[in-house]
Amino acid sequence: MMYPEVSFSIISHGQGEIICNLLDDLRKLKDVSYEIILTVNIRESMNYVFQSRDLPIKVLENKKCKGFGANHNSAFAEAQGHYFVVLNPDIRLITPEIKPLIDALGIAGTGVCGPKVISPSGDLEDHARKFPTIKSLFSRILFDVREPDYTWDNDSITVDWIAGMFMIFHSNIFKLVGGFNEKYFMYYEDVDICFRLKNLGLKTVVLPSVTVIHEARRSSHKKLNYLGWHIRSTIRYLFGI
């Protein structure tokens, strides 16, 4: 049996419209074989899935809503690819390629890799950061300190952590680190897994030569339950509870 090179894990919260755009992007990929594992986290129309039957999609439908980490861990349990890609629905691929990211994972000591992420207007997203501390979060919130933690050109760069909107792991590494910590319902799962990879002696790498667009929804700024999850996850990470 031939296994795909890459397994893409996408979670939908009633986001069929924007997922259609992402599926169109994935449809153009020619440099790797792949499968798509789509987790439907809340009830929604599945017409967009039926319209994408030409793609290798496996659908997981939850009976009750799960968190970010639990959903991707469940998708990983179904994944057959040599590489596991965590992909937000609101990501758009600028160029139909992922092989450079796979090649970057092949460098000794690399645990997870991600592309450069920009906004629809072309501005660099704050997606690669140093591990948060009480001091850095205090400055960020109270004094609105928003300076980027890293600068780069087109060469790969090692960072503390990358945002979970686009993360690619070798499947063996994702299994070795134990996947995402499901104690985090939403937010900080990405920080936590990069921290645990570092403790295993593995690097988090950004490859700026590959660029994607993030059409961000900023739910934590608009909905109280999202903001509550964000605050609880911050406390859990900082104090280990």
Task: Report on this structure.
This protein has 241 residues and is an alpha/beta fold. The chain is built from 8 helices and 11 strands. The mean pLDDT is 89.
Describe the secondary structure blueprint for this structure:
Blueprint: E1 6-12, H1 16-27, E2 34-40, H2 47-50, E3 57-61, H3 68-78, E4 83-87, E5 91-93, H4 99-105, E6 110-118, E7 128-129, H5 134-142, E8 157-159, E9 161-162, E10 166-170, H6 171-177, H7 189-199, E11 203-214, H8 224-239
Parallel strand pairs: 1-2, 1-4, 2-3, 6-11
Antiparallel strand pairs: 4-10, 5-11, 6-10, 7-9, 8-11
Major β-sheet profile: 9 strands, mixed
H and E order: EHEHEHEEHEEHEEEHHEH
Number of strands: 11
Query: Mean pLDDT across all residues, rounded?
Result: 89
Instruction: Supply Rg.
Output: 17 Å
What fraction, in percent, of the residue positions are helical? 25-40%
Poorly predicted sequence stretches spanning 5 or more consecutive residues: none
* Continuous helix count: 8
Structural class of the helix and strand makeup?
alpha/beta
What spatial form do the alpha-carbon principal axes imply?
globular
The CA-CA distance between the termini, in Å, is 44 Å
Strand content: 15-25%
TL;DR?
With 241 residues, the protein is an alpha/beta fold. It contains eight helices and eleven strands. Helices cover 32% and strands 25% of the residues.
